[in-house]
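Most newcomers find our protein records easier to grasp once they have seen one. The structure tokens are whole numbers drawn from a learned vocabulary of backbone shapes. The record below serves as our worked example for the rest of this section.
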Amino acid sequence: MVTPIQSPRIPKIFISIFLLLTLGIGITGFYYYENQKRHIKREKQNELHTICDLKVNQIANWRKERLGDAEAIFKNTLFLQYLRRCLKTREISEIRKEILNWMNSLLKLHDYNSIFLLDAKGEGQLSISDEKESLGPYAQGLVKGVIQSRKVTFLDLYREEKSGHIHIDILVPLVPESNDTLPVGVLLLRIEPNKFFFPFIQSWPTPSPTAESLLVRREGNGVVFLNELRHQKNTALTLRLPIVGKQSVAVRAVQGVEGVLEDMDYRGVKVLAAVRAIPGSPWYLIAKIDQEEIYAPIREHAIFVITLMSALILSAGVIVVFLWRNQNVRFYRKQYENETERRALIQHFEYLTKYANDIILMADRNWKIVEVNERALESYGYTRDELLRMDARNLRSPEERLLFEDQFKKLEEMKGLMLQTIHQKKDGTTFPVEASLRIIEVEGETFYQSIIRDITERKKIEEVLQRNEERFRELYDDAPVAYHELDLEGHITNVNRTELEMMGYTTQEMIGQPVWKFIVEEETSKESILAKMAGNKPPARGLERNFRRKDGTTFPVMIDEKLLKDEKRRIKGIRSTIQDITERKRVEQEREKLIHELQEALANVKTLSGLVPICASCKKIRDDKGYWNQIESYIMKHSEAEFSHGICPECARKLYPELYDEEDDGRSTPDSSGQK
């Protein structure tokens, strides 16, 4: 009876290994999941906190800038005189025209939608707007209070009842020089939040299907949402939630709770939110993301970990079961696989060699050709038998054969060589090639393998590119403005001749140096340039700096920058255009000096104004004390004008008729002595 062969039992050592692997996989998977969970949650909390802080700081700075504009107007006493004069003397068209020009420039330079000049009653006298925009009764009703307060007033977001538009208004009282009299009007600066303010609040720096930032404030016993919301339309200044009752992130915000919170939003959806009050305002900023979105990656990690753990445990069991049974089989299988792979590689190499696009030659120790591919036959024009009888050196042009011995020595030393040379066809024509030479050992014998590429077309292209490069370099160097290029560290990599002449340096002295070394505002420039390289700041347009020449002198320049990017649109440097604006600065200084001199001259000019009582008969003028004065003495007293006396032709005829005959045409005029 033949005893059947029984499968041997699995040794205890393999069972122990399997149990240890299972335990290790389970513990590792659990700690990995917990760590990933904490990491994702912490990362989202930090992201929300950072975004919230960034937006709060930007909004606070935006409010300071708008108040700064208003304060600058409020403290500009000279310009306020023009505004008050415009309100009092409406018929002076030149003043109104100048004020309209100023209002238009203020509108373009800042994000104001409309500017109104109001009198003390709140009635509009001058206005300018990007679109048809009425003043509205709400803003008009606040004019009197602003005039009484004598302070710049920043109105909170409100909706105009008549037009339905949402506004932010800044009221600037026009205060006279004397504090004993009331202001004569108000300048109203209007901001349209839908154009800049709301889109800025709603923006989010990273892609997210639920992320949202919103602005709220407290009104009585409720909280009102100030901007348009992502998940609910037409909510600005309309959506309100009661403070008492169901808790939410918005309610906790107006109650003074700040930081990262987990609560419901206005939809009743659980969110993770960062809350901060905006300094100097009744506003609270909320940056939030749905918890569903935050914890989705955690659930994905849980599924991944469970799947991975199951697969690993199953794999461990399979490995343990079959490891001991396959120990001997693996060796023979490996031998078989290696032999199969070797044969496949040989066949693959032979195929590649035969049909490759490059010429492939193999020569023996004496450089006699022993193997060639099809490309070699096509390129040189020889038959296979002709090439196999040739010396590889004879494939070169006669001139290049003289260099063979030196190149052969380098090949022997380096065991490989890459070079460019000239080869010759059977018909005597030559063509440039790039050859890769290698020494190989086959069964103890040395052979030389050459992989040769015809580079005729590449040479033609290089010649064209070289001509174009020389032309571009000439245009670059002789440009009427200075150019330089910077790498990611802010070091100069290229500079044209115009800038070298402007600065007084040589190319070697500027290349490789940080550009801020040549700028007077060194630290400011360094910080700004590195921020642009990091993509945190846009390139400059019309930036003014002061450059320092090699001799130590400085001069003002205007800089325009362009970011240089690689094929993947990543920033790799900056190209700058520099113009010397010394002459322009000199002209501006002279103009400012002339304006100052004219203003001083105008301040010293005496002028007559108001109603002047004058006698209809004798032309005498009555002064403030009731006395009648000759017109000459009155004008000389109240101005810097002086008089000289003469007599007109009509009066001369009346006073001295005897001096004129009948034929006198009146063109002769007697002087002060009565003679002609």
Notes: The mean pLDDT is 81.
